[in-house]
Every structure is written in structure tokens, then in C-alpha cells.
Amino acid sequence: MSSALQSLFALPLRGLTWLGSQGTRAVAAVVFIAAAVPPLGALLRPYVTEAILVLLCISFMRVDLVALYGHLRRPALVATATAWTTIGVPVIVGLIAHATGLTEHAPGLSLALMLQSMASPMMASPALAALMGLDATLVLVTLVTATAIVPFTASLFASLFLAGMLSISPLTLGLKLLGILAASLLGATVIRRLFGTETIQRYKQPIDGFNIIILFIFAAAVMGDVISDLIARPIFTIGLAALSFTIYFALLAVTTLLFRRIGTERALALGLMVSQRNLGLMLAATSGALPPTTWLYFAMTQFPIHLAPYLLTPIARRLTARAETSSPVAPSSAT
After folding, report:
1. What interhelical angle do 264-275 and 137-161 show, nearest 10?
2. Which of 305, 277, 259 is nearest to 118 (CA)?
3. What superkingdom heads the lineage (predicted)?
4. How much is the pTM?
5. Which range in 80-84, 163-167, 170-174, 307-311 is most confidently predicted, on average pLDDT?
6. SS3 42
7. Is residue 89 part of a domain?
8. 233 within 8 A of 284, measured Cβ to Cβ
9. Residue 181: CATH number of its domain
10. Is 330 part of any domain?
């Protein structure tokens, strides 16, 4: 009976292992497949919150606690990076939105940009950094600290910049974010206790493959209306796509420049983290009760989020190789 069960699970396990081994190629392919099959969007949209919970749970489950504690003993850089992504970015975006009149003239887009800036970094950021050949440890610990405080910072900035634009109060937004994160952390803790970190590490590639499937579910749910919007409003839709790429690479470039003194390779890793905003967390917290323009912009952001790691991998690996060649002891002394 046990051999029958093993053979039953062998094929799916091999499939997940293969999918996980594709790395950034699979992540990039997800966005095109999701956009190309619109009916999946309508089918999967009710499961956005569940997909986000699973993605968060997987990410918390794989946190390297030893590396986390090591960086927490050197808090200055982590605190600076956390303050930039959770406070600096939303303050700048909020001030620009109000100064340019975007809040009055395009409230749906203004809401989208503010929710994007208020969101914590994507939980997949450390894994993407590792796939690109970057040191993911600093990304990991900054991600954890930023995620821990985002229910409070998001509630604050929602009250400052989003008065009357959300269907829920800023306090409710913060409490829902806190509940989602707490549930994911609890689930991850239970899994770690049941299976152990060694088992989780041993099945790294199948877990990566499963993670990509959940990413696809989320992307399909968000991008279900992209084709119809492109046909109905081509200029507007393409404009939102261009804006999403502009904001993504602006955050990447500015963050890399701000933190260049810690080394270009590590600064690029932080830039990747800051530009990869967890919009799914905001969708889950608001239960998807957002204007159509906000939904469409969120859909457009999936293109840079999924494509940029694949496009930037050659640059990241060159930087890593150059850092290792010029200073072999730099990684250990820098941490």
C-alpha cells in the first residue's frame, strides 16, 4: 500500500520539482499565461485572499531563523531600509499625488498608487533575490521587519492620504492586515513544527514549484480583465502598463542609489525588495472592493513584478561575480 501511495505522489512531485527548477523563467511565464486565459480570472478571483494566505505561509515557513537573528543583532541598516520602504516611499507618493492633483482628477489611480506604496514588500522577494544570485539575507530580515509594522503604517497613511477613498476605515484596514499576517505566521509555525526545517529544505524545489502555481492563481485572478480592457481602452491600458514599469524601475534605481555605500550588489537586492510591493496583501485586506481603475493598475503591475527578476538576473550575477573577485572576504565582513 505504501509503495502504491509513493507511486501516486511521485509524478506530481516530479512535476513540482521541474517547475521549481525553472526559476525566474517560470515566474516570467506566469504573467503571460494568466493574461492569455481571461476565463481563469473570473474563476479564480474569489480565491485571492486564500492565495495570498498560502504565499505568505510558504514564505514565513522558509524563513532562515539563524540568518534573521544574525542581522537583528546589527539593526542600523535594517532599521534604515525598513523606514525607507514603509515610511519614505508612501510619504513621497502621497505628497506627489496630492501636489499634482491626482487625488481629485484620477481617484482610482491615486488609490492604486497609494495602496502600492503602503504595501509591504512581496514575501517572495528573498527567493527572487536568491534566484538572481543576490544575497537574500538582508532582504529577508528587512522584509520581516517591514511586514511586522505594515498594519500600523498602512493604517496611518490611509488616514492621512485616503480619506473617503476606501470602503473600509483605516483602523479596519490595519486590523485586517494584522489578522492576515498573524494567520499566515501561525500556519507556517505549525508546518515547521510538524515537518522540521530539514524536510522543508530538502523539498525546496517542489515547494518552489507549488509557490509558482499559487503565484499563477493570484496573477490570473488579478489579470482576468486585462484583455477586455486592452480592447476597450487600448491607450489607457498601455499607459497604465508603462506607468507600472516606470514606478517599478524608479523604486529600484532610487533604492539602489540610496544604499550604494553598502555595495552595489546588496543595494540592488534591497532595490528589488522595495520595488516588489505586496499588492495581494492589500487586495486581501480590502476584500477586493476597489474601483476598476485600481484593479487594472494592479493587473499591470504584475508585468514588471514577474519580468524584472528574469531581465535583471544577468546584471545581478555580474555584480555578484565582480564583488567576489574584487573582495573575497566582503560578504562575511559586510554582515
Report:
1. 40
2. 277
3. Bacteria
4. 0.80
5. 80-84
6. helix
7. yes
8. no
9. 1.20.1530.20
10. no
